[in-house]
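Figure 2 data, in text form.
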Amino acid sequence: MKTLRFSPSKDLIFVKGSVHGLHHRAGRRVQLVLDTGAAETIIVPDLLDELGYSARDGESIVTMRSAAGREQGYLIRVARFKALGHQARDFRVHVQDLPEGWGIEGLIGLSFLHQFNYEVRSQEGRIRVERVGTR
């Protein structure tokens, strides 16, 4: 079981993570938001461009629907995605722009969260995460 802290005074649950490119061993630290309402884990295109990924490497073009409307993007596999004290290799992410001004480089969606039991304790500013199964 991993326990992580976040600032309960912020409007969103911000956590740190990292994304690794095919040829970048250290990866790139990213500012993520935990979003249990997002089906896919989302990363902004500029960050993936920095790591050597391209839309040409994508698996498919997709349209994501949300309460804010429709956003076009694409699905791509990253070498490694780390967040909440855990990692996934050859992990599929949805690539699309996110609103500017928040400093958000991605959202942790259910595509990553499904492999865990997790508990968000908002008043305490804690997230408890436990890996289950072998997904």
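Caption note: The longest helix spans residues 45-50.
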